[in-house]
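Hey,
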Amino acid sequence: MLIQSTPKTPFVHFDFQNKTFVIKGISCPENPMQFYTPIFEELKKYLVSSTELEIVMQLDYFNTGSSKCLLNLFQIISDNATELKGFVVHWITEEGDDELREAGKIFEEMSGLSFFYEDSKE
């Protein structure tokens, strides 16, 4: 699954063979559920037979609607993964962006997934 970024939607690359899932950029689509639902569906299909996934989240900004969808995404993984040890979330933010880092900590706490916090190298 590959979705190119737009001014309001993030770049999304779900590489099933390499077990990687990347969401990068800005997420403020007019209809977040419409944007994220196909991603949820692919994720659910993937989780049926997989026990590993490296997730890279590098969002510069996301609105309230997107935050609900991101929480839903993490919850889908948490609820459907039989063994969460194989699921790793890299939460990448600009150095000093405490607000986005705090958002990651909230998602981590609510989902039960393990997040690793990194500063952007770009």
